[in-house]
Amino acid sequence: MGQFFDDETFAVVDLETTGTRKEEGHRIIQFGCAIVKKRQVVKTYSLMINPHGEIPLAVTNLTGISNEMVASQPDFAHYAAKIRKILAGTVFVAHNVNFDFPFLNYELEQAGLDPLDIKAVDTVELAKIAFPTQPSYKLRDLTASLQISHKNPHKADSDAYGTAILLVKIIEKLERLPQATLNLLGTMAPKLIRDTGWIIKTIADGSRKKRRKLPKDKIQVQNLVLHKQELPVVQEGRQTEFPVGNEAKKKLFKNQINYRQPQVDLIDYMHEFVNDDRQRILLVEAPNGTGKTFAYLFAYAYQLYSGRKLVIATPTKVLQEQLLNQEIPQLLKVTGLGLNAEMVKASSHYLDLDGFASTLRQPAPNKTTLILQMGILVWLTETTTGDLDELQLTAEQLPIFTQIKHPGDARVGTRFASVDFWNLARRKQEQANILVTNHAYLVNHYMDSIWGQNPYLVVDEAHRFAESLVSSRTDSLRFESIWGMVSHLRNLLYFTDNNLAKESEENVQLKLLLELLDEESLDLIRTLNRMQKLVYSRKDKALGQRTLPNKSIQFTIEGTDLFPDDSPFRSLLKEFQQKLEQVRIHTNQIIDLLYRERDRYLTDEQSLMDELAEQVDHIDYYAEKSYQLADLLSQKENLNHLGFIVHVTNPGDSLSSNLHWMTLDSSEELHKIYDRFDHLSFVSATMSNDGKFDYAKHELALNGLAVDSFKGKSTFDMDQHLKILAVDEHQPEPDSPEYQQLIEKILTKDLNGQKHVLVLFTSLDLIKKVYLNLLNDPRVKDYELLAQGLTGSNERLAKRFVIAEKSILLGADSFWEGIDFHNCGIDLVIATRLPFESPDLPEVRLKQHYLAQQGIDVFNQESLPKAALRLRQGCGRLIRGEEDHGTFLILDPRIWTKQYGAYFRASLPARVEKVAIKELKAKLKMAR
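== 3'-5' exonuclease DinG ==
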């Protein structure tokens, strides 16, 4: 039997153009085409075309095609008949077919020929369905990930060839899918772009005739095919004694891992700590490359046969995955211990099979949701966890996520209860000896029974732990958003063209509900407005105010000043909660009534019910926030530790007020967490300042507790791996106009073969200015230019930075340390200025004022050590292990001119070399 599409000829096309708007005179400059027959590329075409116009510099930078290259080439009219002949009778394929196909047809018509009337297929949509776990669907990234070789990305002929091989791989992947999955995909496929669904439908219909059996590693529940789920086998290993002494460890490590004395010293110190009942808390600073993760795992592992669990908390998903997929397997291989490890994360990370199945019975509201659903169907045949993080999604704002994220209840009696991903995850966690979680989950679920009795705790990247707790206790009640939600609800019910109120005349129950809800919703808004006016009236108590670029104003106010004892706000908040609950109840009753009597009122009643249900979700969200605020205000002592920001979006209008809050002292809650665990180790590469742990103890609320500390040594000579350069004192100050020009000059003239360059800022506004000036500069054309707040989410920027062959990333905030660049050898990190927090930021102002009230020297005990640690963290981006080399460049001359500059220099892990700008290019070259 032949293969699918053996009788078809695919013409896989890629166009390079002078722009994207054909009607405005943009033209084709290169036509590339790969002809595919019987899954083989049998012929390729590459035609350079004169557009009779200038090729923009940005296009030349991207494609490498210049005006000189096309000046002597024929124009499109010369090639039009040939191109049409090549494509006649084929299936047109492109990566983003809705660009290439219409553009080419437009050019054909301009040349006096009929447009092509052939099937047109899009490999972007097909790739999203067939390969749902890819981090990016750019052609360049897909071909790299799928190991498709094409020599010249962004050249039409090379891209056409790469797309052709991608098409073949997609077809082969779809053919292997179980029939039930193909059946579902086939019913959804007609809604894909142009004729893209024809590929899936053809495979689904054709494979049905082959009557294939379900593979042994798959299971079908209802109409969903899943990869079979199994609890991990309890690891069998030898229960041995901890290897005391260096020789015993050398013997154990031999032929498995390198023996490094600083790592062994850390292992021994932590092992003694774990076995000393008189000690409970240990602070550890271990430089990057020390192997600190293996060290703490090794130190605790031999204690886990007693039935006690080891809980490890890290700040990021990447670090958690590294622990589970690399570090713990290595530990078990070296030691021979039989231990199981599992990830612990919120239920919302897992797919709710019951919820997902219900979405398949409803029409997809948009193309993005449809493709996501189809990709999940394919993913279900592969995943063994149901962890949505595997999908690397960037569209979690879609309404479907409220239906498909697991709510965390124990499923009993539902259609998919027996294969529920969340229940499976909990069973795995109960069975595990080591549990890996993140800081945020731990601070919010430290009393969870899953940790077991008297568990051990290691907090990795511990310098960020207190910050995680503060972030989890920072929230808001956006009054304007609530007002907007209620207004939208009223619009749906009373004011649209076919509003429900008009349709309710014949149904007394519905009419009464609508009348009741009308008054309740108006009453809710009135209460809301009174709350807004009340917080607005306290703005004169503000510690300070900040005007944002959009002219809105933020007032920073202490809790006791915003809500004095006689404030009526608490009673208003309770009244607000009661009225919000009434609106929720009666909106739900209307939804239930519409559902019971569907088809009686509106032709689009399903759409209305979906929108009403979405508003109920919003109501639940705002109710939760209001109860959080009520809990905080219920105890007067809480107010002493709270700071508030009244954000007025329209100055002078009290009804544009919104409320944000943050905790200023987390010590009490941190102590509650510490009490839940035993033998707590706080581990980080940046825990000390000038060899002392004072700042870390203060931040982690450890002052007054019995705390031991250990400062490890590097396993290699840092000066041989890390070059630290700082521009001399003759350079412009960070706040001067020449400062931006200095940054741009370095990025355009002084980079010397560096492939991954991370530029760290303290201002998003400056990032924008630098990015716009560099965007079309030919001197950085070989780099993918990424900028925080401008070219995607922080997570997307990190992925693009790692994937790109050469990239420059302009980042602030978490890019100093919080965002992970996994397996990416960064060549150069540029710190544009010393990273002091701006006292103008409301949250900084509140925290510093609170500390000053406690009698703390804010600059020397808070601002300076915090900035020095952040500078070290930025430097730490470069050297993650013994194989890494890189350069850290500091552009702030204050490191030489200010008295505190010596403190910064002393905090860094290698000697700081002063450099003049004219020497910089040569220094960067030498550093490589």
